[in-house]
Amino acid sequence: MPLKVAIIGGGGRVGSNAAFALQCGGIVRQIALLDVNQELAEGEALDLLHGAHFCGDQDIYAATTPQIADADVVCITAGSRRKPDESRLDLINRNVSIFKGILEDLRNANLKKDAIIFVVSNPVDVLTRLAIEHLNWNPAKVIGLGTMLDTTRFCSLIAEAKKLPPTQVKALMLGEHGDTMSAIWSSATVAGMPLAAILSPNEQNQLAKRAAGSGAEVIRRKGGAGYAVGVAIAHVIHAIALDKQTILPVSAQVNGQYGMRDVCLSLPTVIGREGVVKALEIDLWPKEVSGIQSSAKALQATWDKLS
User: Fold this and answer.
1) Is 238 among the catalytic positions?
2) Which domains does the chain have, with CATH numbers?
């Protein structure tokens, strides 16, 4: 079934880059851009439309909220940008009110009940949980981008450091998309070979630290991330569109994995046409499990401040 994707915040850097990645992918049928600045959304849609001849026969247009009631995936990228010296969780006070307004608009538009809500706005794990609880939405239909971006940064930086092909590096960042994220070395490989045997402990620490701090580095250098996050968003949406049953490090509500409940954070999660199929509890080193559990505690503490 052809997929209609709506991008809220489609006039911004992240939303428009995601739209471009989806256009280049040529898989989804419709891409609707929404933004508080309607003219900006119309300009981005027009710019994308001009390249349609080379990319694919998709419908790409600026829309209003009532026009996306039939969307299959609603991708929310709108919100305040993070400052270079600011954690993602520091965004909470500024972005929760914006996000609640977007959720109310979706409620008033009578968004179809089987639509998948895909949260990208930060702090993504908290806002993913907010989408579930504020709308009383099926948790399987709510996905946060989570550590998808951190994971591709991690793999790409490892590849750059050791002159390896990036597509053959398989490593994960799990937990919070933020300060408590955990680099998972226990299962990290390149072409099937364990990376822990190739990289010294010091190299591992330095690469994990740089990957975790890459968001702030990009903000400091160019004002905000766009290309990599756009590709990461498209990767998740394509997994939905093609019902790929792909295992991805996205944020979803946990239900007992590693002793955690209720919070939303990133674990290896099977994603398909119906959204979250299941989150996996894989064997990890004890310190990695502890790291993920620390993410859950930090996220719960932030959530408690909202109540």
Assistant:
1) no
2) 4-144 (3.40.50.720), 148-306 (3.90.110.10)
